[in-house]
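Deviation from plan, reported transparently: 5'-O-[(L-methionyl)-sulphamoyl]adenosine complex.
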Amino acid sequence: MAFYITTAISYVNGVPHLGHAYEAIATDVIARHMRQRHSQEVFFLTGTDEHGEPVADAAKAEGVTPQELADRNAERFRALMPQLDVSNDFFIRTTDEEHQRRVQEVLQRVHDNGHTYKGLYEGWYCPRCADFKVENEILEGNLCPIHEIRLTREQEENWFFRLSTFQEPLERLYADRPDFVMPPVRFNEAVSFIGSGLQDVSLTRARMTWGVPVPWDPGHVFYVWFDALLNYYTALGYARPGEDLTDRFWPANYHIIGKDILKFHTVFWPALLMAADLAVPQHVFVHGFLLGADGRKMSKSLGNVLDPFEVIEQFSTDALRFYLMRDVGFGADGAVGMDSVTARYESELANEYGNLASRTIAMILRYRDGVIPDADTDPELAAEFAGLPERVAELLDGAEVTQALELIWQRVRRCNRFVEERAPWQLAKDPESARALDQTLASLAEGLRVISVLLAPYMPASTAKLLAALGASELSLPGATFAARTGGRCVIALEPLFPKRG
Ligand code: MSP
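Because the crystal trials were delayed, the predicted structure below was used instead.
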């Protein structure tokens, strides 16, 4: 079984910020989880979107060429991934020659299939979105609904893509596949956009030069959105030198995107794929926006920006990953800020998970010379773990990263309560309670192990340290089943996973 997942590709007219980190981390959690399933071969793609007006304009303002600007900023996005512990299999840049050649190939086919025509385009254009807006999207005063900047009236001779002829096929797609777009509120948004009537869209730009040349009309370049969307397909052709992964991984299982680019991914994209005789992806998951702690859009001038690099520096990469997946329900908008990072770090990472880990290991060292007792685990505790890996897998099949984390976290809390209920320090005082103490320590070690395997996609570094200390580094999902009998392994002392900060 192959599993292919992508993030949106980032514009290089800016530099990486929390929104990019958020999307990459959420996608990484799903990709890492899928790798834990032995049956899955996973491919995870991210990258940069480098053509189009916004990049050309930003380069001009800086007095450099678009390529120079793209090279500089693409490097920052590429470097972001290891900083976040994101495990992408490839990083695509839309200026890659192989990408451009494949874009030309696919769009030539769309042209040959009769889905294009030449016409005069006049409309309201947002240079920041690189998009013409339809009348019913525009805010009063001809403002962009996303950027709230004044739109310009533009006219040019373009090649058009006959999007309108895909009205019926798209309606059928949505009728047949209620999980094509998730969550349901975004599905409904796409359906209502399609229902309001589709207009043909510009496929090429005559005035631009910073883009992929149109093979059948060399004066034009492709409109950046078509070039960009195709990255999901073209990458498979050249990501692994000498190998074409397309047959194995296409169509994609998941595109993970933010809500501002819903129309492109849920309307243009499936229509374009149909026009090129290609299969449409299984799911588009649309996440919400991270807002400042005051609930407003993050902006430097409001001083409400949460800087991912500062969180990493003050806490850790795992803390950032955990916080973002935990604090804002994936799919919804949510406010984030340094105060709530600190609160979650202290109450959940340090006091709950970190404390469970350090006391379990410390007690095994102290009471059993560092050997996990070879004993039956507590059946009641075992029952609370029954079916857990399967339920986590089910939730992550639906990209429910926050809910899956909550389910795991309930077990962290359960294990801490188990420690209090059993009071191993009392049992240790009475030689008659030796078996009860064995069972308690074996159960805790096993609970901690299972929890850590399931948390590994969220916090790869801390869980790896902990699992190594428990002498059980196996990460596969089937191995996350709570065993009825365990023990015999040695544990080793562990530094605090989430140390108190100065
Ligand atoms: N280049 C286009 C995407 C092309 S995909 C074929 C683009 N780039 S972007 O850099 O502006 O955004 C990249 C992703 O980050 C998008 O999915 C966007 O929704 C997401 N986010 C940008 N700001 C965000 C927040 N504040 N919060 C959460 N995600 C946000 O759009």
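Residues 154 and 169 are 30 Å apart (CA to CA). We consider this an acceptable substitute for the interim report.
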